[in-house]
Amino acid sequence: MDEQSPFATFRADVEDYLRSAGLGSFTSLLEIPPSATYGHLALPLFSVTLPSSLPVVPQESLIAGVRIAGHYLNFTAKTPELALMSYRRALERGGRYACLPQERGRVIVEHTSANPLHPMHVGHARNAFLGDSIARLKAARGNKVETHFYVDDMGLQVMIAALGFERAPPMPPGEKPDHWVGFVYAVSNIMYELAQLDHMINEEPEKYSELVSRRDNLMGYAQALREKHQREFDLLSSALRGLDKDAWEKELGQTLRGMEGGDDRFKKRVEAVVKLALEGFRQTLDEAGVSFDSWDFESAMANPEELKALLAAASASPFAVTYKGTLALNCDAVAKLPNVTAELGNLGLKEIPPMVLIRSDGTSLYETRDIIYSMKKLQLADEVYNVVGAEQTLAQLQVKLALFAIGHPKASHLHHVAYEEVRLPGRKMAGRYGSYVTLDELIQTAVTMASQEIRKRNPEIDRESLEKSARSIGIGAVKYSLLSVSAQKAVEFNVTRALDFDQNSAPFMQYAAVRAKSVLRTAEERGICIPSDPRTNQLLHPLEEELVLLCSRLPDVASYAADSLHVESLASHLMTIADRFNSYYASVPIIGAPDAELRGARLALCKLVEISLESGLSLMGIQVPSEMRRKLPKNAGHESSE
């Protein structure tokens, strides 16, 4: 039998009550009222006809009362019983309180998959943190989860980087590997584009002004790169200056064909740059607390036998067409199949372009290799989630439709989790020209700002504790700011707002959890223990009732976030818990409660809040630090320090 949250037990009692009243068919309409003053669950009555008299609530039920208000049938819970159930479950499960595992299958979450061309930047951060949180949430639901990173070691841009890397001087001492790759790639790409422009200027004199303007723009990026590493820039640009458009295309074409044909010379050329980039990626991801179970290489998807089998299946498909002189699949026709339409719904597209599977020279395309990769993942898992930017929506759709076209039995189990871009005020990023804000820089800035804020609040903190807490707070701040906004919306990232200790931020929630810990620690130091059977019927303050309800619902909210992939719903719920607890802490005496029973109940509530926040934040990869406090005067009976 699946586990049930404390609040779900109350909901089940409400559903039983509605069935006893002959209203069982309306249980799916139950909703959470906007304010607890209306009740804790409500049934809209707009399309419901109530019986002439409502049944009596069973004594053993968690329902405290039933009343009609306007167009709603409102139910209130016995919050003392709900509080005790939640507290006991929190003690029993600890850091897994927010989890509601069920018997589930195998899941692969493929995320981040940054191209090995330059350091991970803020856009990759959203992908990494969203994917990591989805993986954590799916595991909390009982799935066996694997995380995969797909390494694009076959694309044209990687070939440009590899060609430049072969001619580049040694990496300067102390340089981070992926930062060096980013520099080499940007210089090489600029030299490649300059060669293209020089050819176009000679061939298209009517576009002279436009092309020269583009050339001047490239030279501006080149100058910025030269200011970073003057000697290395001069050596590399000089080594590449002799390559004209034809020479570039010859070298790049040879590398691409060599990679696909398994030529060791070209494989080693690419492997050298990719290996260095991934070394830097791992350092960044380790710092951010993101890990992977598998690193999958695109070059492994170019296996001749697998490509041959896929092309044969595509050729035999009723959706095979010739498009631009080569084999393609009619994705638009596939999307109109009844079973596909039923799953995908209205895509809002006038027409889906055909999906080309092979170049005219016989080499495969990225999309072809992506189909093979998808089939490999579907062999290993029951459900596959690809966390990929919204700009790739069409490409992801075509891959899924291609699986339907060739009759793959698990085509419907491939899911695209799209996310919108991250914007930095006043910054325009262009990775191919070396203009970006790296995730390393972002994390370091956040950690430095967190360190300064902690030092202000707690001047006596030792260095080791300061560094550990600053990392937790700084990284948590970046994660929350990217996870708290729906993936379908663009994010404008502001590091100052992200580190606001006083509102709507990870530090604000972490601070609430640390406050709860502080109260509990102070009580323990004074020999005050939480009773084994706290008198939760003493919790009569409106904020106490609200905190009980919020914490009792946390496992349901986390389950919804896992099942719907809406991580922001969990972020919002945790923020509400933190906000209400901070208000509670400021206005209600806990250790200084007027009697022992009330004090014990309030300490139990503190423990429930602490576990709720810590377990919920862990599902977003956010840690609660041990130190954030500042010395405060004795206040509201707390007699504690933060």
Give a description of the structure.
There is one protein chain. This protein has 642 residues and is α/β, with parallel strands linked by helices. It contains 21 helices and 13 strands. It has a five-stranded parallel β-sheet, sandwiched between helices. Helix 14 links the parallel strand 10 and strand 11. Helix 3 crosses helix 19 and helix 5 runs antiparallel to helix 6. It is globular, with a radius of gyration of 29 Å. The two termini are 42 Å apart.
What's the structural blueprint in terms of helices and strands?
Layout: H1 6-20, E1 41-44, E2 63-69, E3 72-77, H2 79-93, E4 106-110, H3 122-140, E5 144-151, H4 156-167, H5 177-203, H6 208-228, H7 230-240, H8 245-261, H9 264-288, E6 294-297, H10 304-316, E7 320-323, E8 326-329, H11 331-335, H12 338-344, E9 355-356, H13 366-380, E10 383-389, H14 393-405, E11 414-419, E12 422-423, H15 439-457, H16 463-483, E13 491-492, H17 495-498, H18 506-525, H19 542-564, H20 567-587, H21 596-618
Parallel strand pairs: 4-5, 4-10, 5-6, 10-11, 12-13
Antiparallel strand pairs: 1-3, 2-3, 7-8, 8-9
Helix pairs in contact: 2-19, 2-21, 3-19, 4-5, 4-8, 4-9, 5-6, 5-7, 5-9, 6-7, 8-9, 13-14, 15-16, 18-20, 18-21, 19-20, 19-21, 20-21
